[in-house]
Amino acid sequence: MKKLRRKIVLGVLVSATVVFTLTVIIAGIALSIQVIRRADSLTSLIQNFKGDITEIMDYRNSNKPLPFNYYFGDETLYRLRFFTVKYDDNGAHCDLSHIASVGMEEAVSMADKVMTKRTETGTLNGYRYRISREDQLVIFLDNSDEMGTLEQQILLLIPVALFFVLTITLFFWFLSKRIVRPFEENSLMQKQFITDASHELKTPLAIISANAEVLAYKDGENEWINNITSQVERVSVLVNELLTLNRLEEVEEISDIEQVNISGMTSAAADSFEAVFAGKSARLKRNIEKDVLIYGNSAQLERLISVLIENASKYVSENGEVSISVLKSQRHTYLSVYNTCEVDKDIDYTHLFERFYRPDASRTSKTGGHGVGLSIAKRIVVLHNGSIEAVPNETGLSFNVKLPNKLRIRKKKH
Q1: Between the CA of residue 281 and those of 206, 278, 324, 342, what are the distances in Å?
Q2: What residues pair up with 401 in beta bridges, in sequence order?
Q3: Which CA distances in Å does 143 have to 37, 70, 82, 178?
Q4: N or C: lower Cβ tally within 10 Å for the chain?
Q5: pLDDT tens readout for residues 69-100
Q6: Measured over all CA atoms, what is the biggest interatomic distance in the chain, rounded to whole angstroms?
Q7: What domains are defined for the chain?
Q8: CB 229 within 8 A of CB 257
Q9: What pTM value is reported for the model?
């Protein structure tokens, strides 16, 4: 359940980060648009009165509404920083009376640049400009103060958003215990039920098996007794597999770690299934590097290899091929078991590692499988910090396992 808690918290963290990031971006865009619109309304106002602020003030004092519905207060005249460049037959004429940081040469240069642009409004060197082509007039408004204020607002929003993201994440971290508690209780009840049911089944299965042996001894073997014996053995195997999977799922870390010669282990497992492959006229190919050593639980790794090779022996096509390989890199060991079989492109083979899952009619109980073995294999791989995948191709199916050569175990807290 720790993984479920981590997934919940990670999901909340990612969601909150995305939401607040979008909020900051949208707020920044909205504020930028507002600042630009304000600057454009000011340049429109200046254009309307040909750059004469005195006329604007006189017009406003006459209690007449200003054009563009823009509020022009008593202090606006003293706060505005702008300059204009007007073109006529005699050249360019600059009005720099409302700004001190721009010289005539720079003002004309900026005006020449914007006159070549198609748009009437825009931004250049921190100035918002407006072109009146009819009057051959260019107005530049110093917008740096408002843009600076905008940047400060956005910079203030970022830590505020970060604070809320962390607060929400921490809140859900503590709340996640309560969220996963029903799932945890349900999982424990399910595991306990499987364990209890499996143990309860062992006794009647043993009695049925013993009675079948007595009947076979008294009356001789027949079809019915053989069916009873076969089904009892099949259910016994299923019970043992469920108990094994249950025990593996209860374990967070593996124990009894030792150095394992996975090459020799794989070769021995392949030898034990040669008769089965021969019964299906299937060819067995090996590509096993010698003396590949990794660290892990010997019994679990042996079970992993046995499950994969046994799976191949069950589903390999008649006159088909089984290929087993063990290759080693600097940090990882790669185990691959391939068998030819019919492959359905519409099936998602990642579900093969789910217990009791069978994708098609070819993987039925007639093969002797229960859909639990691959779940055991995956759990063993996960406990060894590795990965496993089922990779279909045009001719068959390959199970590829990646295991670290050196197993890192978390130190237990005392």
Answers
A1: 35, 5, 17, 17
A2: 335, 388
A3: 11, 16, 9, 53
A4: C
A5: 455 566 666 677 889 999 988 888 898 888 88
A6: 129
A7: 81-142 (no CATH), 253-404 (3.30.565.10)
A8: no
A9: 0.53
